[in-house]
Amino acid sequence: MNIPSELLYSSKHIWIKIEGVTAHIGITDYAQKQLGDIIYVDINCIGGKLKIDEVFGTLEAIKTVSDLFMPINGKVLELNQELENLPTLVNTDPYGKGWIIKIELQDTTIDHLFNAEKYKELVN
Hints:
Order of helices and strands: EEEHEEEEEHHEH
Number of helices: 4
Strand content: 35-45%
CATH architecture: Beta Barrel
Number of strands: 9
Subunit structure: The glycine cleavage system is composed of four proteins: P, T, L and H.
Family: Belongs to the GcvH family.
Distance between the termini: 10 Å
Number of domains: 1
CATH superfamily: RNA polymerase II/Efflux pump adaptor protein, barrel-sandwich hybrid domain
Helix content: 10-25%
Pfam families: GCV_H (PF01597)
Protein name: Glycine cleavage system H protein
InterPro entries: 2-oxoA_DH_lipoyl-BS (IPR003016), Biotin_lipoyl (IPR000089), GCV_H (IPR002930), GCV_H/Fam206 (IPR033753), GCV_H_sub (IPR017453), Single_hybrid_motif (IPR011053)
Shape: globular
């Protein structure tokens, strides 16, 4: 299982890559394997300010639909437009081209997030 060390992780299997006052967010390799083939990504909160654990969208897989939970407080700036035509990027490249949203951080408190080592303990 791929768990990049430069990212932070939530207990709800969301990764976050913080770059200054913005961050990219997606689901972990573990989560995409649990869901199976992603066929649709539904995000309708562009411009919205969301708090930790609020739902920012859903992923639809062949057999299930799963909510996506914010790992940190932020304003949603952008949706990965590539996912509209190719939602399977979430499966094939969850930490790269399969990112889901970009946010502007509203708060930089990260003590509730896991580093790669702690996340690995959670999923093993």
